[in-house]
Amino acid sequence: MRRGIDRDSLGVYYFGLLKKYFPSPAALIRKEHAVPQKSRTGKAAAIKASSQKKAKYRVGVIASGRIAREHGRGWSECEHTQIVALGDVHPGSLKAYGEDFGVPPAKRYLDYREMLDKENLDIVSVCSWDPQHAEMTIAACARQPKLVLCEKPMAASVGEAEQMIIAAQRNNVKLAIGHQRRFYSAWEEARRLLLDGAIGQPRRLWSTVLQGMLNWGTHCIDFQRYVQGDPQAEWVMGQVERKTDHYIFGHRVEDRCSGIIGFPNGVEGVIENELGTWGGINCSIYGAEGMMEINDNSLKYMTSKKAGWQVFEPTEKTRVGYGDAFVRQAYAICEWLEGKIEDYRGEAKHGRAALEIMMGVYESARMRERVKLPLQTRANPLDVAVESGQWPVERPGRWDERSFLVRGEDMTWVK
């Protein structure tokens, strides 16, 4: 385990997070996947509606774990989309997901490529663990659906992200990355306030996170770009500590890190991972005339024109789990496909930009210098540093923070 963190306290903390953010499949069916009563009444109604509606877009889902269920909820509650096929290597998970989302046995595949070849899909959701994102997205694009939605983080390196974009472009496929929190009403309001000058010229954005930069940190960095109108970062300065053989979702991660991000107009972003006890998806923004604080889907702000905090009331119909984010994401994707919007807020270029900043933190620490963007190193700098012996493991023993999500006897999906 990491130095300075009590094992028992860490276990209580993580399983507290598990209970709050990653409920059991039964709970997901019973509560989290239920939508407002006027449109659904529970699992049976969701399956009936999904199987009976005449949707415009046929959706195939790759992988059937926790986040795939959130994708499933989004597609099932969007009137324009229907999940028609599913691919997963685990038979039990495949069966459970298929039953919960109305995918018949004949449309459940143990080989996702067989699903892609046979099903003539319009949309493909890639919901696997992170190291498989590039491979599966490229394979999906090669079958030329209309759109591929890949979960965050986009990939494990800038090089992989670029290959995914090339695969989409050469097959005329739209590529989206699942930073679904861009659809939180609090995030939208924070962006509107900042761009309208409510707190004056922004000077610094500060986010603290737990459980790895590529895991939760990607949301914080994505928010720092989104709230400013998605500017391109100009440089990154970072520091990394990795003493244990630490993994999350099958990919290497740091034990701790921090980074400073140079945005245009002298604005700086700060990202800290595992340097304190305050985590989650958050950002404090300091401007010339006020400040604001985001903590997941809550927002409060203070301006020079009014004393005290002003609190924004989120507009979501449900506040359980991710709220309406995945449903709103599904509707926005349909609008993008139909040409009703030209720019989609979750387009691949934004996923790549967030990934490049994270890789920039690693590269700055590896090279011991401020790194200018765009990044020239296309491999994952953390992998390069570990595998070259530059950052040796001092406390041996591989461990993956998300091993509790794996079924059977394995401790990881990714070998």
What does this protein look like?
The protein is α/β, with parallel strands linked by helices and 415 residues long. The protein has 2 domains: 20-180 and 325-346, Rossmann fold; 183-318 and 352-405, Dihydrodipicolinate Reductase, domain 2, CATH 3.30.360. Helices cover 37% and strands 23% of the residues. The chain has 13 helices and 18 strands. It has helices at residues 7-21, 25-32, 43-52, 66-77, 91-101, 112-118, 133-142, 158-170, 185-195, 213-227, 325-337, 348-367, 381-387; strands spanning 57-62, 81-87, 108-109, 123-126, 147-151, 174-178, 202-209, 235-241, 244-248, 251-252, 256-262, 268-273, 282-287, 290-295, 298-303, 306-312, 371-372, 395-400. Strands 16-15-14-13-7-12-11-8-17 form a 9-stranded mixed sheet. A 6-stranded parallel sheet has the order 3-2-1-4-5-6, sandwiched between helices. Helix 5 (91-101) links the parallel strand 2 and strand 3 (108-109). The protein is globular and about 60 Å long. The protein starts with 6 loop residues before the first helix and ends in a 15-residue tail after the last strand. The model is unreliable at 1-45 (pLDDT under 50).
The CATH homology group name of the largest domain: Dihydrodipicolinate Reductase, domain 2
Number of strands: 18
Class per helix and strand makeup: alpha/beta
Shape: globular
Low-confidence stretches: 1-45
How many domains in all? 2
Overall CATH architecture of the largest domain: 2-Layer Sandwich
CATH topology type of the largest domain: Dihydrodipicolinate Reductase, domain 2
| Widest sheet, order of strands | 16-15-14-13-7-12-11-8-17
Approximately how much helix is present in the residues? 25-40%
| Mean pLDDT metric | 88
DSSP strand content: 15-25%
Q: Please tally the helical runs, counting DSSP H or I stretches of 4 or more residues.
A: 13
Radius of gyration: 21 Å
- What would CATH call the class of the largest domain? Alpha Beta
In whole angstroms, how far apart are the ends? 21 Å
